């Protein structure tokens, strides 16, 4: 297969494995859980083999291009720069790209542990040489653990897989420090017509900085000691629970974050976005066409996604035409991907039943994430209940490269 075909096959395997892991719940019988885990392991083994083939094909392509590559140009991994955090941050990861690939290029893995195995070793203590090496790598003087870079990246990838904002097209920017800036074009250069032999009109573009200053986001999860000892699928379920919780909150601030410290500012509160005050229940698709036109008029299209609460998506689906048949969306709206999230509240407005719908070219939304995730185990705090507490702590920020790429429909009533 070609490099592109290998990448497509690898993405398909990982997607299938993630979907499989989500089938395991607290109600899944042990026999069924073990079967799913075996299928999951097979898929991930196949994905790892494909990844090795991708690395080999990429190295061969890089070798073949050495003579043609200009001096000083960085070789990239899946389109991600591998030399310097500034280049990585300026580029950002597309939704289909993996934080794990970026992390492995910077710091090759020294062990074969999964994230779940690492978390388990933190609680019960290291039992294998691989667990001892991994814990030694992550232990700090404060008694917590900084999860090794590659394992942190895996948790971030799980988070990204559960994020609606990422699915809509938002880019993930790996942050290499506490202060990061992305260049943003504030105004375009203006060309002008000229007569022969006349001086060319000079017009410079103006740039501003978009700051990404990571802020603290944490979640505390309690797990019984019996569950740690007896559950077969905790290695896969615990990272999924943490990732889902972090993803939901990251989606919330990406869309409606207040910007009041320590919370990042989300799309709804950014200056320069378009807004349509609907202040009524949805009866047709006119507000969506208005929002789309506003984005395209700002030369910020195409519109990559519409994000709304499931309540509003259900209301749209229930609309009927005068003949009693379902009301079909105009082609311009039908072609836009519709996504839902419960992170958008539905209790706003005078009647406490209003929500907001978001449209945008989400490639202009940047979610900056520090690659290190810190985990602390609280063994004494819940000892009387025979429980462990796990605190997962990450740092992230939200920014937009072009605010006019977004439009909100406010006051949507239930």
Q: Which structural traits does this protein have?
A:
Major capsid protein gp5 fold; globular; 2 domains; alpha+beta; 15 strands; 414 residues; 5-stranded mixed β-sheet; 6-stranded mixed β-sheet
Describe what you observe in this structure.
By secondary structure, the protein is an alpha+beta fold. It has 2 domains: 1-64; 101-185 and 205-414, 2-Layer Sandwich (Major capsid protein gp5 fold), CATH 3.30.2400. The protein is 39% helix and 23% strand. It has 13 helices and 15 strands. It has helices spanning 3-21, 30-65, 85-91, 99-106, 115-124, 129-138, 149-161, 164-167, 225-230, 234-256, 286-297, 310-317, 331-334, and strands at residues 76-77, 80-81, 145-147, 171-175, 180-187, 206-212, 215-224, 274-281, 305-308, 337-340, 354-360, 365-370, 373-378, 387-400, 406-413. The strands form 4 sheets. Strands 3, 4, 7, 12, 13 and 14 form a 6-stranded mixed β-sheet that branches. The chain has a 5-stranded mixed β-sheet with strand order 8-15-11-9-10. A hairpin with a 2-residue loop joins β1 (76-77) and β2. α1 (3-21) packs antiparallel against α2 (30-65) and α4 packs antiparallel against α7 (149-161). It is globular. Mean pLDDT is 80; it is low at 65-90.
Low-confidence stretches: 65-90
How far apart lie the N and C ends? 51 Å
Report the β-strand fraction as a percent range. 15-25%
How many individual domains? 2
CATH architecture of the largest domain: 2-Layer Sandwich
What's the SSE blueprint?
Blueprint: H1 3-21, H2 30-65, E1 76-77, E2 80-81, H3 85-91, H4 99-106, H5 115-124, H6 129-138, E3 145-147, H7 149-161, H8 164-167, E4 171-175, E5 180-187, E6 206-212, E7 215-224, H9 225-230, H10 234-256, E8 274-281, H11 286-297, E9 305-308, H12 310-317, H13 331-334, E10 337-340, E11 354-360, E12 365-370, E13 373-378, E14 387-400, E15 406-413
Parallel strand pairs: 4-12, 8-15, 9-10
Antiparallel strand pairs: 1-2, 3-13, 5-6, 7-14, 9-11, 11-15, 12-14, 13-14
Helix pairs in contact: 1-2, 4-7, 5-6, 5-10, 7-10
């Amino acid at each position: 297969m070609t490099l592109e075909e290998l990448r497509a096959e690898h993405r398909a395997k990982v997607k299938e494995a993630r979907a499989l892991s989500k089938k395991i719940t607290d109600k899944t019988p042990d026999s069924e859980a073990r079967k799913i885990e075996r299928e999951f392991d097979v898929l991930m083994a196949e994905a790892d083999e494909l990844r090795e083939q991708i690395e080999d094909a990429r190295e061969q392509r890089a070798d073949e291009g050495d003579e043609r590559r200009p001096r000083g140009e960085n070789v990239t991994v899946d389109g991600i720069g591998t030399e310097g955090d500034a280049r990585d941050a300026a580029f950002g990861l597309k939704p289909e790209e993996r934080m794990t690939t970026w992390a492995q290029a910077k710091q090759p893995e020294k062990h074969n542990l999964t994230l779940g195995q690492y978390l388990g070793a933190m609680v019960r203590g290291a039992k294998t040489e691989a667990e001892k090496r991994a814990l030694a790598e992550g232990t700090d003087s404060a008694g917590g653990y900084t999860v090794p870079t590659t394992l942190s990246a895996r948790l971030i990838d799980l988070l990204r897989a559960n994020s609606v904002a990422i699915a809509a097209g938002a880019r993930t920017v790996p942050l290499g420090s506490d202060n990061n800036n992305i260049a943003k074009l504030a105004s375009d250069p203006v060309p002008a017509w000229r007569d022969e032999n006349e001086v060319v009109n000079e017009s410079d573009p103006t740039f501003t900085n978009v700051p990404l200053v990571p802020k603290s986001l944490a979640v505390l999860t309690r797990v019984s000691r019996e569950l740690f000892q007896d559950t077969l699928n905790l290695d896969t379920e615990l990272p999924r629970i943490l990732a889902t919780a972090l993803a939901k909150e990251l989606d919330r601030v990406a869309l409606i974050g207040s910007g009041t410290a320590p919370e990042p500012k989300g799309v709804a509160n950014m200056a320069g976005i378009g807004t349509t005050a609907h202040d009524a229940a949805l009866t047709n698709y006119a507000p969506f066409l208005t929002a789309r036109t506003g984005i395209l008029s700002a030369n910020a299209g195409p519109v990559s996604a519409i994000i709304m609460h499931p309540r509003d998506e259900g209301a749209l689906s229930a609309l009927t035409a005068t003949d009693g048949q379902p009301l079909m969306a105009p082609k311009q709206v039908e072609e836009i991907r519709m996504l839902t999230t419960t992170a958008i509240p539905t209790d706003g407005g005078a009647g406490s039943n209003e929500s907001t719908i978001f449209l945008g070219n989400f490639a202009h939304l940047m979610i900056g994430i520090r690659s290190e995730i810190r985990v602390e185990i609280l063994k004494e705090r819940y000892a009387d209940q025979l429980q462990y507490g796990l605190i997962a702590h990450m740092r992230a920020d939200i920014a937009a490269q072009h605010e006019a790429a977004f439009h909100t429909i406010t006051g949507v009533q239930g």
